[in-house]
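Design a sequence for this backbone.
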């Protein structure tokens, strides 16, 4: 979606969420944008080089799908986005490490990340 989703915690309570575009306009966060966010965060987790965080005291890695229910929901999101034709076009914009011989022309990064997990 090329939107940056931002969530602000309001004290004493509540959270305000908005999707910011390149021009700085804030949009409402729709269920489609939330699904994109869930998938994007999963992909970042799976495709991030684990060696960079293995010995880091500042970064901590959490399992993005800690329960079978979360995994089922993520797979449902992936299936829904493929069925809608959203992912094939989006995957072309992402490239894996060229040094490893894998680019968007050679593989589907979403399926790679799902199978890797």
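Sequence:
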């Amino acid at each position: 979606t090329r939107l940056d989703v931002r969530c602000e915690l309001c004290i004493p309570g509540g959270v305000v969420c908005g999707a910011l575009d390149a021009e700085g306009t804030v949009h409402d966060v729709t269920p489609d944008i939330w699904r994109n966010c869930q998938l994007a965060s999963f992909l970042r987790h799976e495709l991030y080089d684990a060696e960079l965080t293995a010995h880091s005291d500042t970064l901590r890695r959490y399992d993005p799908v800690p329960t079978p229910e979360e995994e089922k929901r993520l797979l449902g999101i992936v299936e829904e986005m493929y069925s809608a034709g959203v992912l094939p076009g989006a995957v072309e914009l992402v490239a894996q490490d060229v040094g490893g011989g894998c680019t968007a022309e050679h593989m589907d990064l979403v399926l790679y990340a799902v199978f890797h997990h």
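Strands lie at 4-9, 15-20, 26-27.
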